[in-house]
């Protein structure tokens, strides 16, 4: 079917995979299945995005999330039959509003004494020069969506203050769907520096940066909670989510982080016992962690619409809900 669709020019191509179980026929080894998927997608003249929908507690959420990541798509956890059409509505609302594809962001240190320590993202990162230059494959962007990537830098000490010290150059390349051509953009970032002798003075924390630090903290906590839960340490997993929730609620960006807290509570409440963890929480953690990493709505229940849901997704869900 994928091969047949290649006959007609279309800037938006996607594969939607719905499953209610595990890989139990044909290729059943997860790693081999992922490799075959990657190879097959790479062979296609126009690579489609891949969206996976897992229904029920038996669906392998880890495998489906990995398949979706290979296809620059998303994983939807459908907890009930009624949530299935809403999940498809959310997905289609996004696909009908794609504005940019194959986004590549390159960040480069502007000075030998400025080191890029870490890039906090779940998008694939290619190291061009360790500590100095990296390329991030962000994938596609829907209308109204944003992508915020936190970067940890090591800066040299300075003896004199300066209003602006250049830090990194940022280059973006993407295919503009509306204009049907490749676009490029570039900018530079910097920060005001305080002299070493003044370093103890109070520094104002950016509410915007703090919010995205909370977002990353939430995604990381959910991924770690999934690891702990799979290892049988459900109590520790639930305690980790509670600790993260408390840390977010005492941060300066707490007022705008309410939906992060709500998702942490939703996952914690679903892991009261090892049984409920396996039935609901395990897949919910994967889906919500992915959602916050990618800043993209992938909910199968309209009640959970959040800051990532665009007007196109909301309208699509509303139409499906009214039927």
Helix and strand topology:
Layout: H1 2-5, E1 14-19, H2 30-43, E2 49-55, H3 61-70, E3 75-78, H4 83-95, E4 98-109, E5 115-120, E6 125-129, E7 133-142, E8 150-154, E9 162-176, E10 181-193, H5 207-230, H6 234-249, H7 258-269, H8 274-294, H9 311-321
Parallel strand pairs: 1-2, 2-3
Antiparallel strand pairs: 4-7, 4-9, 5-8, 6-7, 9-10
How does this structure look, described?
The protein is an alpha+beta fold. The chain contains 9 helices and 10 strands. The strands form 3 sheets. It has a 5-stranded antiparallel beta sheet with strand order 6-7-4-9-10, with no helix packed on it. A 3-stranded parallel beta sheet has the order 1-2-3. A two-stranded antiparallel sheet has the order 5-8. A hairpin with a 4-residue loop joins strand 9 (162-176) and strand 10 (181-193). Helix 5 runs antiparallel to helix 6 (234-249). The longest helix has 24 residues, at 207-230. The protein starts with a helix and ends with a helix. Mean pLDDT is 88; it is low at 1-8.
How many DSSP helices? 9
> Helix/strand-derived class?
alpha+beta
Strand order of the largest sheet: 6-7-4-9-10
Overall average pLDDT:
88
* Biggest sheet record: 5 strands, antiparallel
Task: Report the count of strand segments.
Answer: 10
Portion of residues in helices? 25-40%
Q: Strand portion, in percent?
A: 25-35%
In whole angstroms, the N-to-C terminal distance is 29 Å
The unreliable regions are 1-8
Rounded Rg: 21 Å
Taken in chain order, the helices and strands follow as HEHEHEHEEEEEEEHHHHH
Task: Give the CA-based shape.
Answer: globular
